[in-house]
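4.2 Preliminary Data

To establish feasibility before requesting continued support, the project team ran the inverse folding procedure on a target of 285 residues. The structure was first converted into the token representation described in Section 3, and no sequence information of any kind was made available to the design step. The complete token record follows.
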């Protein structure tokens, strides 16, 4: 038996990583965002799991647009930090956990989620920025091995929110049946509302974001019922990344305890959000 001890939802805006890498976190434009992260980071530093699973999307950096798997998993020993055009971020490469990856793959395929497998994968800001949000000063290594689960949010037709939530629930069952690890953390990344291009470039919807932040804790089924079109209408064309929060949430219990949440506008052209949940909560019979 392995146990999911926490779930972390966080935006993965590349400039958040750049601000950290370039020593800009105390600048007035950035300080409030990082102040908002502080309680979550302090709690996470006291609650390091044996292994983490990070649900993210690649942005045509690790994998080009000719091949876009709907759902995929990495089974590698290590994942290199991708060069997104400015050189690789000066953060550690990621150590994986092939045994747990294979267990998840087997169990998810058996449950009808036919994941594509990456035996080799460079991870972009969708992956490394959430790791930096979790651990601002990793030193030589991130706090534990991390397994990538990749979701297509960039090419139509993206998986539905309901399918992402169901994947999370299957993931939770797969983790519970694993003998090899003790404790597991799950990250769901992306969002919040944003649109980077087109007629609505710069679109941000705080009303929707606050609804989402509340419902991801208390009513994830409501979010799972949102259509692709509704998500894009309400959250912007890239705000559909929020479906990855539902994979994380599906792997947690029905009832969770919110440790901390934060919301800040803007980070780049994006509404940045964070929500951290303790999964070690007594469940109703
Ligand atoms: C930006 C890129 C992202 O992948 C994202 O999720 C939010 C913002 C950006 O380039 O600003
Ligand atoms: Fe993104």
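Position-by-position output of the design step:
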């Amino acid at each position: 038996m392995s146990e999911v001890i926490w779930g972390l939802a966080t935006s993965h805006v590349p400039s958040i990583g750049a601000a950290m890498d370039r020593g800009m976190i105390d600048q007035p434009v950035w300080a409030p965002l990082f102040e908002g992260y502080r309680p979550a980071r302090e709690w996470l530093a006291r609650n390091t799991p044996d292994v983490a699973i990070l649900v993210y999307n690649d942005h045509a950096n690790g994998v080009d647009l000719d091949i876009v798997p709907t759902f995929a998993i990495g089974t590698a020993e290590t994942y290199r930090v991708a060069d997104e055009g400015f050189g690789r971020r000066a953060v550690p490469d990621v150590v994986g956990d092939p045994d747990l990856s294979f267990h998840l793959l087997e169990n998810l395929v058996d449950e009808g989620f036919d994941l594509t497998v990456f035996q080799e994968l460079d991870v972009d800001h969708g992956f490394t920025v959430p790791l930096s949000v979790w651990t601002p000063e990793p030193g030589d290594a991130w706090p534990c091995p991390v397994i990538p689960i990749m979701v297509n949010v960039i090419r139509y037709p993206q998986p539905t929110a309901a399918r992402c939530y169901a994947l999370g629930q299957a993931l939770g069952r797969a983790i519970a049946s694993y003998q090899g690890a003790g404790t597991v953390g799950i990250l769901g990344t992306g969002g919040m509302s944003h649109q980077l291009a087109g007629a609505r470039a710069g679109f941000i919807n705080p009303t929707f974001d606050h609804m989402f932040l509340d419902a991801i804790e208390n009513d994830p089924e409501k979010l799972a019922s949102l259509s692709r079109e509704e998500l894009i209408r309400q959250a912007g064309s890239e705000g559909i990344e929020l479906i990855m929060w539902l994979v994380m949430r599906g792997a947690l219990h029905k009832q969770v305890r919110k440790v901390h949440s934060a919301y800040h506008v803007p980070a780049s052209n994006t509404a940045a959000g964070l929500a951290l949940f303790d999964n070690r909560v007594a469940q109703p019979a």
